[in-house]
Amino acid sequence: MSIDDVRSLPSIRDSRGGRRWVERSFAAMGTRVHVVVQTTDGGRPGAELLDLAEDCVRVAEQRWSRFLPDSELSRINRLAGRVTVVTTQTFDLVDLALTARWETNGSFDPTVGSALVHAGYDDDFDAIAARPEPFGSMLGSFSGPDQIVLDRRACTVLLAPGTVLDLGGIAKGHVADGTTDELLKNGASSCCVNIGGDIRVAGPGPVDGVWRIEVAPAGVVVRLSAGAVCTSSTTKRRWLSLDGPAHHLIDPLTGRSRVGGPQSVTAIASTATAAEVITKWMMAGGRPGRFEATGFSSFDDGTTHAHPGLEPFLDPAGTDGQKSS
Question: What is the pTM of this model?
């Protein structure tokens, strides 16, 4: 997912009532990050709050990037077959990812990392997109979550040899949630954290008190006063493998890039962590209502299917908001 060419909301610099909007965009976690914060007179300066948000994201990247050789996740994968002591934050995220796997009947699966690597997604996407020749092939199988042992008391993770954890999607949602919480704790009255299209908002937005989020390519605009919206799409992060076209959404049933079904799905939920997981459930044909969420699915014939509960979140006014693509 990408938020390239994000446009600032029209009233981003409105300072009425002693409140001021500040924003920052930067590259991290293999994507673009956009943070919007509302400050108040007497509160922490906007620059400090933006620094806090960026620090939260960059610390998480150092922990959970699959592409940084010294990250905690890379160390876990490199030491597959051996017990690895991890930080509490990493243990909790791995535990959360495995729980999500069971709750979605395997539609979300953090152990597809070996299939992604075999297919050629073994580096930051900008690097692999620049490769001139086809590369990688579909693995067709991977170790699965039964090959992971967690010990909460010792705070350790044990992967079976050959297992590769990929926490990319759920990590982005989790960091969007955590960064939002930190901003609110430190004096922000409203904020929006957008990590590659995994968006979490809190507090009144700058346009009529709501946050307007444009979802591409569907062209739908979602209105939120709180909560999260996340999109997953087979049209992004694509490359040509030795077996033909490939993309980053691996079907856990086949170990190959998912074929058929929706071209993209968008989930609206209370947290970005939940919404991110629910998009994988929806990609497999599941209904978001099972998780007290809603959303919509778009297909390559141009049709869009709205799930129950979506209508209150739709903005009929058109585009010009945060982008989730």
Answer: 0.88
